[in-house]
Amino acid sequence: MKKWAGRRLSGLTPAQFIIVCYLAATVVSTLLLMLPISLKPGVRLSPMDALFTAASGISVTGLTVVSTADTFSTFGTFVLMAILQFGGIGIMTLGTFLYIILGRSITLTHRRLIMLDQNRYNLAGLVQLMQAVLMLALMFEAVGTVILGIYFRLAGYTEGWVHSFYVGLFHSISSYTNAGFDLFGDSMKSFSDDYFVQAITMLLLFLGAIGFPVLIEFREYLIRRKGFRFSLYTKVTVSMFLLLIVAGTAGIWIIESSVSFVGMAWHEKLFYSLFNSVSTRSGGLATMDVTEFATPTQFLLSILMFIGASPSSVGGGIRTTTFAVILLTLFTYALGRNEVRVFKRSIGQDDVTKSFVVFSAGTMLVIGSIMILDALERQHFSLNKIIFEICSAFGTSGLSTGITSELSNPGKLLIALLMFIGRIGILVLLYMFRSKKPKEKYRYPKEDLIIG
């Protein structure tokens, strides 16, 4: 049996192997969350709800059908934190760390898996990359735990230092991994007037969503300084990420000024707009009920969730660089140019093609899922709520208009599948259909088509 399983796994492509690992992790997480020790006394968790929670945790989405604080025991929340850590940092990062601890060598096959999981183009420096990713994650989460733990205790949000650091640890991990789970019972609505907690949370969300390669480059810049040059990837990623934050903040402020922000002070409008703009992309934490937003705002948030976070980060969606290349290509084509240029560099045609493939596949997936979910729920929910829920799942955001727990089991399965796809990424999903067979050595004659 063991040899048969080994042969079956060895026959998988790297993309197929990664997907199998994430599926296996989801199944194991489901079983762990269903253990009696993981639940509070008298609480029962159905297999479907456990599966949904596990899928949400592995994909670091945060959509929930049960209250985390009311359902899980202390042991259960630690299990959930481990799931969030696993899902956020990635299976290959933790796998590499385990190999290093056990003293085992990192094989070429393992390096190829890392390369695919982290969207890298070459095999050089992958082990050092995984070590840096893990160390940065643990450092940010540890600092966040200390700051939040002390603040929660001194501000009177929690009682006792142990409980304060426990809540601080959970919130720090949930924020950095952009998971969106909370122990407060109302996401972050209790902190709608606490700008310090919001600022720390937004910083952790930003560090998790900006992407590991960007963080590593900034670390190298701080070490080397002189002669250091940021890569085109980092320049495009940071620029687009900040641009989307500003655009989202401005859009929410403008639309809601005459709706839910009426009578608020300017600083309240600013933080409500800024926090939702940052969190929407993949964080899933909220300082106000999104159902209070006007329909145009909900649609804007859906677009931001669809775009998602940066590549090689904890977030989902089509990713920021994909959206940036799409915009740059449209601009280039409108001007009649042949090369897509930005920051005095040209973008390769392969990257342009990948961007349009990811965008097109993501769009078709989301539109198809909206139609299917609406049909499954027999039009019980308004279309804007369906759109919002689908985009939240695909972008692994976790924000919800409150319909998650009311969905039918088939509807929950669809949302869980979208969260899973959002986590592994569109490219890995498409690579799953590739075989190990060599490429064809012949080509057909080309013929032009009428386009547009």
What's the total number of strands? 2
Large-scale geometry: globular
Measured distance between first and last alpha carbons: 55 Å
Number of separate helices: 19
**Could you estimate the helical fraction of the residues in percent?**
55-70%
- What share of the residues does DSSP label as strand, in percent? under 5%
Mean pLDDT: 84
Secondary-structure element order, N to C: HHHHHHHHHHHHHHHEEHHHH
Query: Order of strands across the biggest sheet?
Result: 1-2
Helix vs. strand class? mainly alpha
In the predicted model, the low-confidence regions spanning at least 5 consecutive residues are 1-6
Largest sheet: 2 strands, antiparallel
Please give the radius of gyration in angstroms: 22 Å
What is the total domain count? 1
InterPro entries: Cat_transpt (IPR003445)
Membrane topology: Multi-pass membrane protein
GO molecular function: monoatomic cation transmembrane transporter activity
Pfam families: TrkH (PF02386)
Summarize the structure.
It is built from 19 helices and two strands.
Mind explaining what this structure looks like?
The chain has 452 residues and is mainly alpha-helical. It has a two-stranded antiparallel ribbon. The chain has helices spanning 2-10, 14-33, 47-58, 68-71, 74-89, 91-102, 108-117, 126-154, 161-176, 195-209, 212-224, 232-256, 266-280, 295-307, 320-334, 349-376, 383-394, 409-424, 426-431; strands spanning 340-342, 345-347. It has 19 helices and two strands. Helix 2 crosses helix 7 (108-117), helix 8 packs across helix 9 (161-176) and helix 12 (232-256) packs across helix 13 (266-280). The chain starts with a helix and ends in a 21-residue tail after the last helix. It has one domain (12-431). The model is unreliable at 1-6 (pLDDT under 50). The chain crosses the membrane at residues 15-38, 50-69, 75-102, 123-152, 195-216, 236-255, 317-336, 356-374, 413-433. InterPro entries: Cat_transpt. Keywords: Cell membrane, Ion transport, Membrane, Transmembrane, Transmembrane helix, Transport. Its main location: membrane. It is found in: Cell membrane.
